[in-house]
Amino acid sequence: MTDTVRRILNARVYDVAVRTPLDPMVRLSERIGAPVLLKREDLQPIFSFKIRGAYNRIAQLAEAARAAGVICASAGNHAQGVALSAQTLGIQAIVVMPVTTPSIKVDAVRHFGGEVVLHGDTFDEAYAHARTLEAARGLTFVHPYDDADVIAGQGTIAVEILHQHPNPIEAIFVPIGGGGLAAGIASYVKFLRPETKVIGVEPVDAASMKAAIDAGNRVVLDRVGLFADGVAVRQAGEQTYPLCRDLLDEVILADTDAMCAAIKDIFEDMRILAEPAGALSLAGLKSYALRNGTPHGALVAISSGANMNFDRLRHVAERAEVGEERELLLAVTIPEEVGSYRRFIHTLGSRTVTEFNYRYAAGSKAHVFVGLQLRDAKHEKREIVGELERLGYGVIDLSADETAKLHVRYMVGGRAAALTDELVLRCEFPERPGALLRFLDGVGTDWNITLFHYRNHGADYGRVLVGLQVPDSDRARFFERLTALGYPYEDETGNDAYRLFLRG
């Protein structure tokens, strides 16, 4: 820790980075009942804190290494940080990015003078290629987090926070991907103010640091979720892990809905659009405040980046209300008879309906997909469900059902009569031409496709719901072929939303 603090105090970042403000979040502070402060790293020249670590690393290079140039692998903010840092110092920079990288990110790197090499479908493939080029051309690899100078550069954020807020701080919440930002901030804060908590925040589906701390050693996750792509790291860093293990007070996990709600909170207070990873620490702060009550000092979150793809806004807006527990999604079973629809609406009374999906189905029962706006989630949800059950309605809460929120709510009414042996999968496809064709070619023509739903969410990977007719006797062979294909998937054949609204 002492060596890291020394490096932080000697870091070179302000040739290109700026000292960002620590702004109060007035509305959220009123809701929580404590001062909430947001460190505005979205105001950096590349709209992300990554410029600090990248510049400090490159600025430390000897003349021979500068002359040879630098290389990195990244599809996001680190790529822009390396490109701008190298441009400022007059150094050649090569950035290897997956072929799936959106053009807006590729264009941003080129704008800062970086030479872009597109290789592979995934970060791992791009990373391996960058390492090959590093060795072949004698370049210096600039790691996004697992480097002492990168960690030190990110740690300068902590120096600014403690200068800007000399009053008590109960906790500083830091997003974690590989752990460079958390390691740098925790080293400085615990050296100067050990009473201040430093709490890491990870997505629930990309919690590599928490997994490492729980296991007592670095582990490799089988897969990571990609909504918060800025922190989608399968393994904690070799240098960052021991610092985070020894210095962090805890690691909090946040799901997609909580991040979307935090993006909305930042927008309402600051009128800025944080990217999912940029709002991650605030999602953790809110979870902590709800769990722990009134804090003894300020709560600080880091707005780590604002490189938001515009296409994602629809998805964020849809999920924010659920994440804030301001919307309740229900599947309700009502009698399929004249007047039952009106009676059900009457039961809802004056509550605001955010969504209502219904289609006639033969038989004695009908299923309705309904969204309701909540004022007091803690009590109102239980009250609504209890009242509907008391009146004899079958009710299932779908507010936490990923398949229902991503797909089924847009497909209600699409039943297929006399369909047998249907298997339903929720998959992630790379957002690139030919991804679906590769899936179909890999699966083969032995099984009939019965259902397909896709919506663009502005991410590098698309979310797809696909159904196929696969007899029970053939499922072992099917899953063997699907596993070999390599696309992440979840079997949703038993999902309640699918069963009620889509199954024949």
How would you describe this protein?
With 504 residues, the protein is an alpha/beta fold. It is built from 20 helices and 18 strands. A hairpin with a 7-residue loop joins β12 and β13. α12 (256-270) crosses α14.
Give a brief rundown of this model.
With 504 residues, the protein is an alpha/beta fold. 42% of the residues lie in helices and 21% in strands. Helix 1 packs across helix 8 (148-164), helix 3 (50-59) packs parallel to helix 5 and helix 12 (256-270) packs across helix 14 (313-323).
Features:
single chain; about 500 residues; alpha/beta; Rossmann fold; Alpha-Beta Plaits; Biosynthetic Threonine Deaminase, domain 3; 3 domains; four-stranded parallel β-sheet; 20 helices; about 20% strand
Query: Helix count?
Result: 20
Quaternary state, please? single chain
**What form results from the Cα inertia axes?**
globular
Strand order of the largest sheet: 1-2-10-7-8-9
**Percentage of helical residues?**
40-55%
**What is the number of strand segments?**
18
Using the coordinates above, name the CATH class of the largest domain: Alpha Beta
The third-level CATH topology of the largest domain is Rossmann fold
- What does the main sheet amount to? 6 strands, mixed
Q: Evaluate the radius of gyration.
A: 25 Å
Q: What are the segments in which pLDDT stays under 50 over at least 5 consecutive residues?
A: none
Structural class: alpha/beta
Termini separation (Å)? Answer: 61 Å
